[in-house]
Amino acid sequence: PAGKKGAEEEDDDFGYRLFPDRNKKPQSFLVRSLFTFHNKCQLMLRLTLETNPYARLLLEALKQSGCTVFNDRHFSCENCDGCVSGGFDAATSQIVLCQNNIRQQSHMNRVVTHELIHAFDHCRAHVDWFKNVKHLACSEIRAANLSGDCTLMNEIARFKFGLKGHHQTCVRERAIRSILAVRKVSKETAEKAVDEVFDACFNDLEPFGRIPHSKADAKRAYRDFQNRDRYTANL
């Protein structure tokens, strides 16, 4: 749906321009199977969902929240604009994976985790994705903070270095960048929204209970989540 809240948001397509396959008739399985990108995307997705501790924790958390995720229903490998790797379509509760832009398993792991955090927020809270930029900012902060987007190795790969407070800086910058990619708002509007909710949303660590800075951290968080569930069941 398109809404108008001022000149800068006029004709806002809510980021759908970045995902052109969203508006096309779905291709048959036979046609899709002929494209290497689609096959590779599906294989990498399956490996992520089965082995990655970030994704496995989020899948369990979603299930416990009443939002079980099904591979064939809630994930879609599609061709996208070159500037994005994935997205969460709140209108369909579906995660879009950009098969033409995701080439490595580690990249797939991060994208799936990032978008599953959006799905988790969509499940547990009344998020107004389309009209409330603060709601969007909060989920983007959480996704950047908890998905591994801002690990030291990823930042080094982007040629960005820093010491004190660098993780927070990375989270803020990536949240602003994500908002600008999917909403027709000014940079000042995006920055204001992020800054106004940053502390509360940065410190909201559900369902991890910690900031997982590595796969080892994510494994520990996954074990803690499972034990927390067992403890709650015995109360």
Explain what you see.
The protein is mainly α and 235 residues long. The protein has two domains: 15-126, Zincin-like (2-Layer Sandwich); 128-212, no CATH class. 55% of the residues lie in helices and 6% in strands. Helix 2 (36-51) crosses helix 5, helix 5 (105-124) packs across helix 6 and helix 6 packs across helix 8. The termini are far apart.
What's the short version?
Belongs to the peptidase M76 family. With 235 residues, the chain is mainly α.
Helix content bin: 40-55%
SS-derived structural category = mainly alpha
**How is the main sheet built?**
3 strands, mixed
Principal-axis shape: globular
Identify the strand order in the major beta sheet.
Answer: 1-3-2
- CATH architecture of the largest domain, please? 2-Layer Sandwich
Q: Can you tell me the CATH topology of the largest domain?
A: Zincin-like
The whole-number mean of residue pLDDT values reads 85
| Radius of gyration, CA atoms, in whole angstroms | 18 Å
- Gap between N and C termini: 44 Å
Q: What is the element string, with H for helices and E for strands?
A: HHHHEEEHHHHHH
